[in-house]
Each structure stands twice: as structure tokens, then as C-alpha cells.
């Protein structure tokens, strides 16, 4: 009879451990789902603000996504949006270097992102813009030297 009692006790401990594990991992899954829903809401707000011309507000919403998701998806989408906002033609605070920085973060932190090819294209375009700026600066310097 002693063995039967020990078997019942072991079964009880195993079942208790499994139940605690299920509760723990279930809570983690719920938290991840909640964070993903919050991130999607922030992304939607960002798109609305960008369409309205509120670049600063759109940036803030994308940074909220990053704070909620960390390095999980849709963080890559938030970084992509940030890069686009900094490169946007209508943005008075546009900064191509910041834009390239955020696109580079996608390449480094999300090597399997579905946005990777678009990021590479945008990075190439930004490099061409920067080179064109350098050529313009050199032309202006030459003009000033010739005018003297």
C-alpha cells in the first residue's frame, strides 16, 4: 500500500507542476497578445497622423510601438515608418541621416523582416541623395573659387 500512496503523491505533484506551468505560460501569451494589439493600435494612429501631416505625432506613436514590442514584430514596421517619416518630403524636420539610421536598425535587428527589400531600396535611395548633396556642395565651392 505504501507504493500506491507514493504514486498518488507523485501524480499530484506532477499534475500541480503542469497546472502551474500552464497558468504561467498562458499569462505570458495573453500579455504578448495584448502588447501586439496595443502596437497595432499605435501603428494605425501613426498612419492617421502622418496622413494629416502631424509628423511629430506619427513619430511618437511609432516610438510607443517600439516601447511595447521591444525587438519583436511589429517593431520592424515601426522602425520602417520612422525612417519614412524622417525622409518624407513634407516633413519640415526631415533628416536623411536619421532615416538611414532607422532603416539600418531594421537590417541589423530584423534580418528576416518582410520589409527588408524595401529597406534596402530606401537605403540605396538615401545614399544617392547624400552623394548628390555632396556633389552640390563641391560645385558651390568651385563656383566661389572661380568668382574670386
Structural commentary:
The chain is an all-alpha fold. It has a single domain, classed as Serine Threonine Protein Phosphatase 5, Tetratricopeptide repeat, CATH 1.25.40.10. The chain is built from five helices and no strands. It has helices at residues 2-51, 55-69, 75-87, 96-109, 116-147. α1 (2-51) packs parallel to α3, α2 (55-69) packs antiparallel against α3 and α4 runs antiparallel to α5 (116-147). 22% of the residues are buried. The mean pLDDT is 84.
Keywords:
148 residues, mainly alpha, Serine Threonine Protein Phosphatase 5, Tetratricopeptide repeat
Tell me the strand percentage band: under 5%
The CATH superfamily title: Tetratricopeptide repeat domain
First and last CA, distance? 109 Å
Output the radius of gyration: 26 Å
Structural class call reads mainly alpha
Overall geometry comes to elongated
Précis, in short:
This protein has 148 residues and is mostly helical. The chain is built from 5 helices and no strands.
What's the topology here?
Layout: H1 2-51, H2 55-69, H3 75-87, H4 96-109, H5 116-147
Helix pairs in contact: 1-2, 1-3, 2-3, 3-4, 4-5
Amino acid at each position: 500500500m505504501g507504493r500506491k500512496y507514493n504514486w498518488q503523491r507523485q501524480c499530484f505533484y506532477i499534475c500541480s507542476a503542469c497546472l502551474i506551468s500552464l497558468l504561467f505560460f498562458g499569462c505570458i501569451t495573453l500579455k504578448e497578445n495584448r502588447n501586439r494589439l496595443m502596437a497595432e493600435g499605435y501603428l494605425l494612429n501613426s498612419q492617421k497622423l502622418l496622413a494629416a501631416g502631424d509628423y511629430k505625432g506619427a513619430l511618437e506613436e511609432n516610438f510607443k510601438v517600439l516601447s511595447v514590442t521591444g525587438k519583436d514584430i511589429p517593431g520592424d514596421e515601426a522602425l520602417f515608418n520612422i525612417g519614412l517619416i524622417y525622409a518624407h518630403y513634407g516633413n519640415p524636420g526631415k533628416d536623411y541621416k536619421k532615416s538611414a539610421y532607422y532603416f539600418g536598425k531594421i537590417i541589423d535587428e530584423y534580418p528576416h523582416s518582410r520589409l527588408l527589400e524595401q529597406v534596402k531600396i530606401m537605403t540605396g535611395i538615401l545614399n544617392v541623395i547624400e552623394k548628390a548633396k555632396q556633389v552640390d556642395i563641391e560645385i558651390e565651392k568651385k563656383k566661389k573659387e572661380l568668382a574670386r
